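This part of the workshop introduces the protein records we will be handling. To make this concrete, we reproduce a full record directly below.
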Amino acid sequence: MPFIKALGYNIFDPSEVVPEFTADIVGKKGEKVDYAIMSKGNPIILIECKSINDNLDTEKHAQLFRYFMGTEARFGILTNGIIYRFFTDIEKPNTMDSKPFFEFNCIE
């Protein structure tokens, strides 16, 4: 949440930041992304948070990929609190890219 706040969003305003946002896809109900940053009632950024000990491997990436397809968001962030990976749909519209366009590590 401090990262979301640092981006300039009001973490206490549910019209801006929605925790446990429902991102259902066809055939799979109850899918929830950890945070959705909203604009005009629609998600614009999805944030999937993992444990600090988690490796942000393809399984974790696949989870964010599913959420991305189930919403109108065009940016996704996958993080374990140390590494932050930023994704969008440059390669194919409405489909999250397989590689992040930006990544940073808070420790290195």
